[in-house]
Amino acid sequence: QKEVEQNSGPLSVPEGAIASLNCTYSDRGSQSFFWYRQYSGKSPELIMSIYSNGDKEDGRFTAQLNKASQYVSLLIRDSQPSDSATYLCAVIDSGGYQKVTFGTGTKLQVIP
Amino acid sequence: EPEVTQTPSHQVTQMGQEVILRCVPISNHLYFYWYRQILGQKVEFLVSFYNNEISEKSEIFDDQFSVERPDGSNFTLKIRSTKLEDSAMYFCASGQDTSTDTQYFGPGTRLTVL
Known about the structure:
The complex is a heterodimer. Chain A is mostly beta strands.
């Protein structure tokens, strides 16, 4: 059973701070990793995708991938109250066919 | 910006009844998926569909479930005889190709089985 692990939180950060979200995965052969944001009662919304070791930046978001450690993280700079949501780590299983395993998500609360 | 749409937004049914959940994927996408999310739990993969056939399914996707692409635009999930535990949000997603791997989610259908 392939697993994606996240701390469920809540993670509380003050407005303007950096929020750091972490994820580990069990499938060593996985090559594609995603961060989704999910507001309560809504569908997952893609924030970032990352495929190579290292950092990938998009605006206030930076995804970090370390395949040797099987670790993915998401940094949110200058956190805003509107960033308050659950952040889902998702990993495409090795072996093809696009099966995605999601973590349980980390709830982020940005305090004004 | 193109988006995945789903209907209905909320479906209430009696246990044992059949339901069909409908999705219109993004028009140039080739890969289609169904996921479910039981309240308070994680998003779970049900099935992927490509080239008019199922490419992968999870252990959740048993004989009670089926998928179909009846025409060039719709993608449906049928649950033949609903159970109480089928109550969940069902999300459809689509992806353009394997090289990008990105899946775009629809807004979901909330299924309530009474």
